[in-house]
């Protein structure tokens, strides 16, 4: 097994290689505006670090969000393209699940990432491997009663101390955590879903309401 894991659902552009036993190389850079620029060089970097070629990869793991439309689609399109070119399966893993796995907390807790517009993407967890609610997007004040008092991880939690007073790192997802979680599930015989994006809301860019299409006569 050689899994190439990647995620661009948060400001972190993160890539890792997992050889079936553990992560053998990883790279993470935080830059919300340069997902497209940073992802392929990061993949080249982790491959060069191990001396492996891309055609040695036996599977792709992609973080499926939730996340902003523009950033998220960079990772998912790259994963789909590599999977098609290499003829290997592409597995989707919820980005929030990767953060929960990296947090390695016992007992109930919350993962919340920054959804912008003064909102968070969030979900509740029974433990680091068990999500108990579907990913959602809400204003922190609207979910305060549901999450109040619970430990929380992720950038969304750290940005909203009134709602998440027990917030701490990790701030962003790491592909290393995604790879370890995916490898663990695959080794246990679990089927991972296809990498379908969790956008949860429409993209920020919208066609103006009074937009007129002008065609030549």
UniProtKB/TrEMBL annotation:
Its EC number is 2.3.1.234. Coiled coil: none annotated. Gene3D superfamilies: 3.30.420.40. It is an enzyme of class 2 (transferase). CDD domains: ASKHA_NBD_TsaB. Keywords: Acyltransferase, Transferase. Residues 32-144 form the Gcp-like domain. One of its GO terms (molecular function) is tRNA N(6)-L-threonylcarbamoyladenine synthase activity. Signal peptide: none annotated. InterPro entries: ATPase_NBD, Gcp-like_dom, T6A_TsaB. Pfam families: TsaD. PANTHER family: TRNA N6-ADENOSINE THREONYLCARBAMOYLTRANSFERASE, TRNA THREONYLCARBAMOYLADENOSINE BIOSYNTHESIS PROTEIN TSAB. This is tRNA (Adenosine(37)-N6)-threonylcarbamoyltransferase complex dimerization subunit type 1 TsaB. The gene is tsaB.
């Amino acid at each position: 097994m050689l899994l190439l894991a990647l995620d661009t659902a948060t400001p972190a552009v993160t890539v890792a290689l997992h050889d079936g036993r553990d992560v053998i190389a990883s790279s993470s850079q935080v830059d919300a505006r340069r997902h497209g620029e940073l992802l392929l060089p990061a993949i080249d970097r982790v491959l060069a670090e191990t001396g492996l070629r891309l055609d040695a990869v036996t599977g792709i793991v992609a973080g499926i969000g939730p996340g902003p439309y523009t950033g998220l689609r960079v990772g998912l399109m790259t994963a789909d393209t590599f999977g098609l070119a290499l003829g290997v399966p592409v597995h989707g893993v919820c980005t929030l699940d990767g953060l929960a796995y990296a947090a390695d907390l016992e007992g109930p807790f919350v993962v919340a990432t920054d959804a912008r517009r003064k909102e968070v993407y969030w979900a509740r967890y029974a433990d680091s491997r068990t999500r108990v609610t579907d990913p959602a997007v809400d204003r922190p004040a609207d979910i305060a009663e549901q999450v109040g008092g619970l430990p929380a991880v992720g950038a969304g939690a750290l940005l909203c101390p009134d709602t998440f007073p027990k917030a701490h790192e990790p701030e962003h997802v790491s592909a290393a955590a995604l790879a370890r979680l995916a490898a663990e599930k695959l080794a246990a015989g679990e089927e991972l879903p296809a990498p379908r994006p969790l956008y949860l809301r429409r993209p920020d860019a919208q066609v103006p309401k009074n937009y007129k299409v002008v065609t030549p006569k």
